[in-house]
Amino acid sequence: MAETKKEANAAFDLFVEIYGAKYEKAVAKLVKDRDELLAFYDFPAEHWKHIRTTNPIESVFATVRNRTRKTKGCLNRKTALAMVFRLMKSAKKKWRKINGPNRLPDVIQGIEFKDGIKQLQTAA
Question: What integer best gives the mean pLDDT of the chain?
Fold first, then answer.
């Protein structure tokens, strides 16, 4: 939850120092994926909340998982796909809109962000 990538790297290094000896394999995996874990700092700050969470994926599939467990015995491939499609379409109605939708064109155009702040391009 650091404000800048520099602060996040410092906190990451401290975490590795504290827990590296006790949880060697887990820390090694985190260190290996460090760049991916901190990649959200290269996006608009308004989008960080959405990038950090996996809840939208988990909540959609929780709905599907609960329903398919109850109807376990009476599904073939075709009806299962139809049911999953309808459940996801229904779950879509409850999804929250993205914060900062006005920043999406900048992201799509590949404009650089540093610590969530748009970087101005200088003409050469």
Answer: 83
d(CA 68, CA 84): 8
Mind listing the pLDDT tens digit for each residue in 89-110? 887 777 777 788 888 888 888 8
Residue found under tokens 């800048």: 4
- Measure the CA–CA gap between 30 and 102, rounded to whole angstroms: 32
Alpha helices, DSSP H only, in the chain? 5-19, 24-32, 34-37, 48-52, 55-70, 77-91, 104-109
Over residues 59-73, the mean pLDDT reads 72
d(CA 103, CA 49): 14
Contact yes or no for 44/113 (Cβ under 8 A): yes
Determine how many CB atoms are found less than 10 A away from the CB of residue 44.
20
Count of CB atoms situated within 10 Å of the CB of 5: 17
User: Considering the entire predicted model, what is its pTM?
Assistant: 0.60
Please state, in angstroms and rounded to a whole number, the distance separating the CA atoms of residues 111 and 119.
7
